[in-house]
Request: fold
Amino acid sequence: MTGERRLAGVAAAPGVARGPWAHVRRDRPVGGRIAAGDAPAEEQRLRDASNAAADALMALSEQVEAAGHADEAAIFMAHATLAWDPALIETAVARIHERGEDGIAAIVAAGADAAAGLAALDDELLAARAPDVVDVAERIARVLAGIPEEADLLPGRAIVAAEDLSPSLTATLPREHMLGIALEAGSPTAHAAILARAYGIPAVVGVPGLLAALAGPGGESPAAELALDGSTGEVVLDPSGATAADLDGRASRLAEARSHDLEEASLSAATRDGVEVTLLANIGTPAEAAPARALGARGVGLFRTEFLFLERAAPPTESEQAAAYAEAVSAFGGDPVTIRLLDIGGDKPIPYLPMPHEDNPFLGVRALRLALDRPDLFLTQLRACHRAALSGRVKVMAPMVADAGDAALLLDLDRQALEGLALDGVAHGPVELGVMLEIPSAILAADAYFGSIAFASLGTNDLTQYTLAVDRGNPSLERYRDALHPAVLRLIAMAVESADRAGTALSVCGEMAGDPVAALALVGLGVRQLSMGAASLPAVRRAIRGAHAGALAAEGRAALSDPSAAAVRARFARLAAAC
Ligand code: PEP
Ligand code: MG
Reply:
């Protein structure tokens, strides 16, 4: 009897991890409204919460000081002062009385307003305090919501165990401490999983019962160690000696494979019969550009820029964005870097852009749809892209384009950005403009606007979500979620035909492109550019080099009439195995 317990989840980011675990949780409090007569009581609740947050911060400051960290102690003391700051608290109190917001909504909004005011100041020291105000306002909101405070979410090296992780939390937890990620919820196409792959952190998601099992169900003691294999979805609590040895063996084989992958990076991704496929990388920060190039990426097919906008009090400035984009562009020499305009909403909320509650955020004011209310955000970003174009080849694409009207909106925003740059005398270069194809209507109506854009990229994560009505973050829908569904393939085939007719370049940048079996299907359907998390490049390159494009095309045509995603997967898995 070893005491080992096994759970099964969904493989989300390759790699093996074994070690201590930490339950990481930082729920974002949800604000609401109050009835008119409740305002005085709500005001009192807010004042009590502000006092409690300040007390807790003072205690934390003393504790940190006693441990010999005077600098950190000073930061927490300054935060305690902010939690009592009359300007912040009285603004929130006024919102409770005048707008009928509850304490949570009022303090979060007051914090965001104060932070935006600070960030706009020319005084760099004051502007740098903006994130602190947001932080403190959220702390008070967590007290109001009864959400326990975690002094330090991940103090040492551990496997992160959580119900789910927001993209911002995944992006900001100390990477050097994250041995792996195991989530009860989530799916491989949720943004936490995408980030894990980008950072090379092994991850398993959709593990039912994980947290209860770790805590020790039915009076058992909590697990001392957690292990996971992010390629198979296996999760093991307190692995036996034999299991631990097996997992460690897998980890060292992976390390060997990685050095082999780097050796193969210069090989082209051409099929046996000479059809060349361009492999590109998906990145979320400029720092990922150089490692992606080392693995053989011939450019960036998707630079998810929203991660620059997370965990801060105000949007990044034009210069800040231009510098970040130029860094990625320079890392790729003359190869193109495709910058995607801000895609927020859905599972990517942003603190300083409070959005009204939506019953269906994935069907709501997300991504480019926000440009009607906040054109400034997109104009700034487009100006930054044109400035980055001085460093190399830049492509810019708009997310969540639905039809010709949205494509025209992109062109119009770009025209305005260019006019502004010219008027201000700011040096800039040309960019190619394109759209993401992730809403079925954008493909069904493609012939109406493809002629006006230079390129299009299939975002198969959302395309699958919207075509099959499968929430991309819901693990209980796993059996419905496979981008190889014939309905999705038909849309992809239509996109290829429209692109050929209009002479528009077409790529795929959804997670599907990084799955070797699905990548073969895409080549079979006529796609010639695939963009993926850098870690997937070697396996996809090997699959393509082993395949015959003629055979893939025949299977691609046949797959359109297959009865299920499983049948399509089996069809291309056979070809992949034969390579
Ligand atoms: C997609 O939807 O396929 C995509 C690439 O965009 P994101 O995953 O960032 O929504
Ligand atoms: Mg998308």
Residues 405 and 430 are 23 Å apart (CA to CA). The first strand starts at residue 5 and ends at 8. The pocket of magnesium ion (ligand 2) is lined by residues 399, 438, 459, 461-462 (CB under 6 Å).
